[in-house]
TrEMBL record:
Residues 19-181 form the Band domain. It is a single-pass membrane protein. GO terms for biological process: proteolysis. Its main location: membrane. This is Protein HflC. Gene3D superfamilies: Band 7 domain. The lineage of its organism: Bacteria, Pseudomonadati, Pseudomonadota, Alphaproteobacteria, Hyphomicrobiales. Signal peptide: none annotated. Keywords: Hydrolase, Membrane, Protease, Transmembrane, Transmembrane helix.
Length: 301
């Protein structure tokens, strides 16, 4: 009988321990509630106990959580409209305050989205497009993070980081800017093309002038060379004539026969005893007295 009662007691104790035991994972932190009132905060991982039926446990995430913002379209300080896609990362720094104010992650995300959108619009309204996309984008994001951190601290949340994924102009503005850029590039191309054509005309004009000068100089030099050649030829002929006048006359007559007796469209009618044929009549080229009535006249056929 005693052993049976002992076994019952052991069973009851084991059941109570089973109902009261809970495990906190390394990625979690826990709140132990006694009739809905926060009694204890457990942030270290491991096995823990609570009073069954009296206390219950709420688990909260210890990891860094992501908050994705919907796309925001906002006017900047220089009146340009921009489309911004941003996100934030946060963690639950004060689980007691977090549970008292929002209780769940979904509710916290909704509240943080409101804070982030308000801070984003406020900061973009004071920022120019150049600062946002080029000059000090990191500074803009840091200002937004500080603004969100102030409001999020009231929820027991620590904002780790705020990032802007994308900051672009709306499609209509982008098309207008693209058209303006295209027009500017076309004007620039037209100007460059006109300057190139003007430079090409100058180069062609300079080349034509240089070519004319070179041709004129070449003709001048050729005429000088031709004159010098003719003078040299005449001097050689004169020297040859002075050395042997008969041979020179014979040589010149042979050249005249070669050129004059070639086949062509023009016919020559000459007397056989004319001076042109004196070497035909006498090998020494002595000319006989011309016959009476002889004549020589060219006739064209």
């Amino acid at each position: 009988m005693r052993n049976g009662i002992l076994l019952v007691l052991v069973g009851i104790v084991a059941f109570v321990l089973y109902l009261g035991a809970f495990i906190v994972n390394p990625t979690q932190q826990a709140l132990v509630l006694t009739f809905g009132r926060i009694d204890k905060v457990v942030q270290e991982p491991g096995l823990n106990f609570k009073w069954p039926f009296v206390q219950n446990v709420v688990f909260l995430d210890k990891r860094i959580l992501d908050l994705n913002m919907p796309t925001v379209e906002q006017n900047l300080a220089n009146k340009k409209r921009v489309v911004v896609d941003a996100f934030a990362r946060y963690r639950i720094a004060n689980p007691v305050l977090f549970f008292q104010r929002v209780q769940t992650i979904n509710a916290a995300n909704r509240r943080l989205s409101t804070f982030l959108e308000a801070a984003l619009r406020n900061e973009l309204g004071r920022t120019s497009f150049e600062v946002l996309v080029r000059d000090d984008r990191a500074g803009v994001m840091d200002n937004i993070r500080r603004s969100v951190t102030t409001n999020a601290a009231e929820l027991g949340i620590e904002v780790v980081d705020v990032k802007i994924r994308r900051a672009d102009l709306p499609d209509a503005n982008s098309q207008g800017i693209y058209a303006r850029m295209q027009s500017e590039r076309q004007q620039e191309a037209t100007q460059i093309r006109a300057e190139g054509e003007e430079q090409a005309r100058r180069i062609r004009s300079r080349a034509d002038r240089d070519a004319a000068v070179l041709v004129a100089e070449a003709r001048r030099d050729s005429e000088i060379a031709r004159g010098e050649g003719d003078a040299q030829r005449n001097r050689i002929f004169a020297e040859a004539y002075n050395k042997d006048a008969d041979f020179f006359g014979f040589y010149r007559s042979m050249q005249a026969y070669e050129k004059g007796l070639q086949q062509g469209d023009t016919s020559l009618v000459l007397s056989p005893d004319s001076a042109f044929f004196r070497y035909f009549n006498d090998p020494m080229g002595r000319q006989s007295a011309p016959a009476t009535g002889s004549s020589a006249a060219p006739a064209a056929q």
